[in-house]
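Re: beginner question about structure tokens

> Can someone show what the tokenized structure looks like for a real chain? I only ever see the sequence side.

Sure, here's an example I had lying around. Input first:
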Amino acid sequence: MRVFVTGATGWIGSATVDELLRAGHDVVGLARSENAAASLKGKGATPLLGDLDDLDAIRRGARDAEAVVHLANKHDWADPAATNRAERGAVETIAEALAGTDRAFAVASALSGLVQGRPALETDPSPAVGLDSPRGGSENLALDYARRGVRAMSVRFAPSVHGTGDPGFIASVVAAARRHGVSAFIGDGSAAWSAVHRTDAARLIRLGLEGAPAGSRLHATAEKAVSTRTIAESVGAVLDLPVTSVAPQDAAEHFGFVGRFFGMDMTASSERTREMLAWTPTGPTLVEDIREGAYTGA
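And the corresponding structure tokens:
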């Protein structure tokens, strides 16, 4: 297939491009800069210059593709409304370009806020609807196009898509430990996160494009729940730092922006996803990555 990928040089996107190319697919990647374009060319992918605000470029990429993976996101924590607008605009543009074609469209989504008190299931709908909701309600918007001739699916990523070089939440937790000289968790540390290695996440995206039915919600979670205390203890062990608790009211000061999330339960089952696509994660666990120096160069 000819696959158009937004976020093609990002953390998950770059692994996805590699996975798609290895499987014999042609890849066109949205590139925000000449450096990003050169990186894609070096892999054997075709760059398309543009960004999330360039809806004409996104429309061209989607129109000429046999499948689309939308991974790009502004992640502007200072202006979430701008992030939501850009996300919804990109998803709507892609979906309209694909309407009536029965082509695959995979949209990145998240696990936070789906349910309370238990791991989320693939059958749990997202409560985010409309422009003012998280990610602009893009998951539900995309899945609505399953009724309009698009093989739309959401891919809900674990809060930790980990591996060497990961710039995400765990990197921020490690940076806070170095900054304060202690590795911390929030409260009693019982809050837990799902986790998945980025190569497993990339393989799931490829399998979804190749075989998931329209309307699927796919869970990119290899580990259902890793407690935040276990994460902090692993960071402390590799950095040789003491491990301590931080009160919830002090979390933002200690951790920075990631303090909003580190005390939250963000867990999910991937049982249905595994059965549907014969997806079996094989990468290292989150704790193995931390302890083997993926975040510290140890």
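Each token stands for a local structural state, so reading them left to right follows the chain. The radius of gyration is 19 Å.
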